[in-house]
Amino acid sequence: MAVLFLFVDGIGLGEPGAENPFHRFRYPAFSRMAGEQPFTGKAYHHSDSRHLFKGIDATLGVEGLPQSGTGQATLFTGQNAARIVGRHFGPYPHSKIKPILKNRSLFHRAASGGKQCRFMNAYPDIFFRRSQERNRWSCTTLMTRSAGIELYTERDLKRGRAITAEITQEAWRERLGIDVPTIEPREASKRMLNAARHYDLLLYEFYLTDKAGHAQSSDQANEILGRYDAFLGYLLDNLDENDTLVLSSDHGNLEDLSTKTHTFNRVPLFVQGPAAGAFRDVDSIQGITPAILHIL
């Protein structure tokens, strides 16, 4: 049994309307995730033995708009990072929560328990140079490195073992000049499914949703969500019956293009697979890491 954890940055369950791309456009996999309902805050909770969908809190009982640094740290540690810092903070992890990401993260605790973990995102050489020069790492890369798990590189991508941040590899080819082919979303899904045969826990991070939300571009949002929907749909169609897929976010954003900022909306929690019942009582992003560790 493997757990496939999909972290989608900056998507909440917003109100239906023209400024909500989840309402304005059609995304079959997102609707399927919501139990064949529109992927909005009006969707009813759905729960059975193999499928769970509901909105969960990302505000963490702390005033102010949720931010990526504290939201992601909470998501990946099970600790209320915003309360520890005393405010919402981002996009990078605050100095007060770096020790938690280093020593108490999902990857660290799973690996300490003998589980094989892998972060599926690949990074180009320029990312490593800049991160090392500035000594500034994101929540996901910090927890991965601190757990003794190597980050995937260009070499891994060319071997078909990793996935780029935008899924299709086009940014690596067109903007970075790296000699890799453009691929279809289903090819990236296949890489995730192939890795599930060899690892207990996989994580894939998709951040372009948050970027599109800040840009307030309906066209950009539709293109990015359509791409992710195709990636997700293939995963759902081909997920092994013994594996469990978990999807969530750190805060809302893209679901309301009328504002440049993040939102207070609840974020989705979607689980498909035999361990769906373990997430039934999760009511905030703080509960996701404990639930994953429990089923592992």
Strand % is 5-15%
Largest sheet: 7 strands, mixed
Radius of gyration: 18 Å
Number of helices: 14
For the biggest β-sheet, the strand order reads 2-3-7-6-1-5-4
Low-confidence stretches: none
Taking all residues together, what is the mean pLDDT? 97
SSE topology string:
EHHEEHHHHEHHHHHEHHEEH
Summarize the structure.
This protein has helices spanning 21-24, 28-33, 68-77, 81-85, 98-103, 106-112, 125-134, 139-146, 154-158, 170-174, 185-195, 208-215, 218-238, 288-295, and strands spanning 3-8, 46-47, 51-56, 117-119, 201-206, 244-248, 267-272. With 296 residues, it is α/β, with parallel strands linked by helices. It has a seven-stranded mixed β-sheet.
Descriptive overview:
With about 300 residues, the chain is an alpha/beta fold. About 40% of the residues lie in helices and about 10% in strands. Strands 2-3-7-6-1-5-4 form a 7-stranded mixed beta sheet. β2 and β3 (about 50-55) form a beta hairpin.
Which terms summarize this structure?
296 residues, alpha/beta, seven-stranded mixed sheet, globular
